[in-house]
Amino acid sequence: MKLPITHLKPGMKLEKPVYGSCGELLLNRGIVLTKRYIEALRKNNVLVVEIEGPVPFDEIEIKEELSLTVRINAMQQLCSFVKKDNVSVADIKDTVEALLEEILSGKEIIDHLVDLCSADLYTFAHSVDVCMLSLLCGMKLGFNREKLLALGIGAILHDLGKTLIDPQILNKPGKLTQQEFEIIMTHPLKGWKLVEERGGDAIHPRSKKVILNHHERYDGSGYPRKLKAGEIDPFSAICAVADVYNAMTTDRVYRKAFPAHEVYEMLLASGNAKFDKDVIHAFLSCVKPYPVGTLVKLSNSKVACVVSQNDSLPFRPKVKVLPSGEILDLERELSVVIEAVLSPEEIKDLIP
Ligand SMILES: [Fe+2]
Ligand SMILES: [Fe+2]
Fold first, then answer.
1. How far, in Å, are 128, 295, 306, 347, 348 from residue 352 at the CA level?
2. Cα(213) to centroid of ligand 1, in Å?
3. Most buried by CB count within 10 Å: which residue of 105, 132, 146, 289?
4. Where are the domains of the chain?
5. Residue 155 Cα, ligand 2 centroid: separation in angstroms?
6. What is the mean pLDDT of residues 6-34?
7. According to CATH, what is the number of the domain 2-60?
């Protein structure tokens, strides 16, 4: 059985040998794990190992939500970094490491955690979300711990430059003028410069590229440098998809959030036009078009609530039909499909 190393306990036995990033043997098959071995695996950036025999159910099915404290801490660190409260780039590294640990320990990410009222708060919450989504995507692409950390640091800092943009423009409810849009377009360069000035040498050059390049697009239509396909580093490409997904699925002062399934389909349909197709596929396999709790309309005209995900078929989750409470696993009930997500108005109509 495969287990993330955060779930390992002394006494568990390795079913397969564990190799380091250069192919060297770290621990052989049949070794009984001790605290020291587990620590050594962590230090060698091993993410997952295979354990012999059944592992008690309660030890693997940890489905807690990502702890509020870790998320709030991450936002505070970012905020202090901007305000120069003795927070260095090295502290940001620790923050990303804490987020990565949470994800590796199997905690679920919940969206829209913070009521986004101020420009700063939106930027920080969005940065933490984009960091986590990028980490999930990187894991899907098989990145090792070192690469994940570099990606996460770039992603959490990607919009730092927005804190230097006038909030009146950033939060303008109406359409931006050309001049205002040009000001917004300066945030990647401003963010990159800010990090360079504040101890940028401590972070990987690829992390810094994410800040500069997260608005570049595959077809050359992005900014600030209009880079194209192969000129865009994969870290920046991952952050770009996570950024668009999170921004579109979040309410903003100038528009309501798009439903997750619509953004999902939009990204899926966009092919190689704006984003790298392989990155889109990896990304979409980590996000859920119908998060648990979504109310949906089924093709049999019934209304249902999503109760759990089917990882292999994200468009076919398990649902509870309302009001009967009947559970339908859409992975098996192939004659029924989800036709739409109920709008808030439709949900209001359902309440007696
Ligand atoms: Fe941005
Ligand atoms: Fe962003």
1. 38, 16, 21, 10, 9
2. 9
3. 132
4. 2-60, 68-284, 295-350
5. 9
6. 78
7. 3.90.105.10
